[in-house]
Design a protein that fits this description.
four-stranded parallel sheet; alpha/beta; binds 6-O-phosphono-beta-D-fructofuranose; seven-stranded mixed sheet; about 450 residues; Rossmann fold; about 35% helix
């Protein structure tokens, strides 16, 4: 293995540069060249394959900084379609022309699906990342628990998973993905900040966090102490929810609800997603879950409740919604993400060195600590070959109390008790550096652009 490629695909996450740096540092030790492909799979679909040499003379380029969020290589949601054999062989030809002996894809379940067809042409390893923390399995045989249920959709079925079995935390395949801890750090702080407004004005705040069909971010957001957490894996029971909100209002005159964007009703229909569309990788884009819960509360609680006690002029005015949005996906990664991401990047290089293909570098939890391991991607496939996003197990969430279960608390503690470094706190002081007022933002894209080379020989 003399030269490997690396690309970052799917939505950006805070620790991508840390993963790339970890891979490059390991490659420096092994004297392997690393070529960064620009903009994920999109770079490979481009006949000129824009790329950057990340370790000339086995020294990491200075733009690689583990504390910088996003990815210096750029990312896209384009992917390689497994059924398009012509494109796949063209992509394989381009990698060959670049003399790339193995490829690291940094991404989540969508990227892993995109990596599958390339695995037949060269060694490939996925270095995981996703704020959603939905890559992997709750336990080894979980992929077999997916079933196809007929429905009226164009494809005629939908996937459904049974609730699964009890498991120990050390059984989880890929315990946690880089990006998750930083997302939770941001969303938990958002809850704390919004809380005081809800409290002062006797209002109900509904805060929506990301995660698609997985409630992990919402679960982690419990560090911000929301009164109620709603996750996609537990259908929203309107009666129970309204009862809980009323009992909270009764005691503290305000309430804070944190919900995942992908929450569903008891029929399994998304509460939001009214205007859903699909990205190039076929992922649903969610919107409107918080507004849907607001409508539900306004309808059930009604104006009188709020006007009677002179708390608010109407139910509509009393309930407000906010999305944490992309702030939970961007910016400086916290210590846990930086460290584990760079470890996984290094592990991915070691796996390629062993010429493994279609492999996933994983972070496992054993005997109270984290260890690196790997798994063949086929272990994550269901009977029909699909790789599903890992759902939040019902064992980690208490649907009656709308809070993490004891096992959920244990899970979160294992990640977060040392997740924040002193430098993460210190770095916040730079916000008010006077230079920020006089200097424009210096984009890394400008520096990387000067390093970009193309297969046709052109550069820049
Ligand atoms: O998969 C990561 C994620 O942030 C999801 O949580 C979210 O639904 C989606 O990406 C948002 O995608 P985009 O940035 O393309 O709107």
């Amino acid at each position: 293995m003399k030269r490997i490629g690396i690309l970052t695909a799917g939505g950006d996450t805070p620790a991508l540069n840390a993963t790339i740096l970890g891979a490059v540092q390991r490659a420096n030790q092994l004297r392997i060249e690393v070529v960064g492909i620009i903009k994920g799979f999109s770079g490979l679909l481009n006949p000129n394959v824009p790329h950057v040499f990340l370790n000339p003379l086995f020294q990491s380029i200075p733009e690689l900084d583990a504390t910088r969020g996003g990815t210096i290589l750029g990312a896209s949601r384009d992917y390689v379609d497994g059924n398009d054999h012509e494109t796949i062989s063209r992509v394989a030809g381009r990698l060959n022309k670049l003399k790339i002996d193995g490829l690291i894809c940094v991404g989540g379940d969508g990227t892993l699906n995109g990596m599958q067809p390339l695995s037949e042409h060269l060694p490939t390893v996925l270095a995981p990342k996703t704020i959603d923390n939905d890559l992997g399995l709750n336990y080894a045989d979980e992929a077999n628990e997916w079933a196809k249920e007929p429905n009226d959709s164009a494809r005629g079925y939908r996937y459904k998973k049974n609730p699964g079995r009890d498991f120990g935390l050390d059984e989880m395949v890929n315990f946690v993905t880089p990006g998750f801890a930083t997302a939770v750090f941001v969303s938990a702080q958002s809850i704390q900040r919004i809380r005081t407004t809800a409290e002062s004005h006797r209002r109900i705040a509904i805060i929506e966090v990301m995660g698609r069909d997985c409630g992990m971010i919402a679960l982690g957001t419990s560090y911000g102490q929301p009164d109620i957490i709603l996750v996609p894996e537990a259908a929203v029971d309107e009666t129970l929810l309204v009862e809980r909100v009323l009992s909270i209002l009764d005691v503290q005159k305000h309430a804070v609800i944190c919900l995942s964007e992908g929450i569903v009703d008891t029929e399994g229909q998304c509460l939001g997603a009214v205007t859903s569309s699909k990205d190039p990788a076929g992922n649903l884009q969610y919107s409107g879950a918080a507004e849907a819960v607001k409508r539900l509360l306004v309808k059930h609680i009604g104006n009188d409740f709020f006007t009677h006690k002179r708390r608010n002029e109407s139910a509509d005015a009393a309930v407000f919604v906010r999305k944490v949005g992309h702030t939970q996906r961007g910016g400086r990664p916290i210590l846990f993400d930086r460290f584990q991401a760079s470890q996984l990047g290094g592990k991915a290089v070691d796996l390629l060195k062993e010429e493994l293909t279609n492999c996933v570098a994983t972070l496992q939890y054993r005997d109270g600590g984290f260890v690196l391991d790997s798994v063949n991607a086929n272990v994550l496939r269901d009977r029909w070959g699909t790789i599903h996003a890992r759902p939040l197990s019902p064992r980690l969430y208490d649907a009656k109390r709308f809070q993490p279960s004891p096992q959920g608390i244990e899970y979160l503690q294992s990640i977060f008790h040392t997740a924040l470094g002193a430098d993460d706190v210190e770095s916040q002081r730079h916000l008010f550096s006077t230079g920020n007022l006089s200097r424009p933002y210096q984009s890394v894209n400008v520096d990387i652009n000067k390093r970009i080379q193309r297969l046709d020989g052109a550069s820049g």
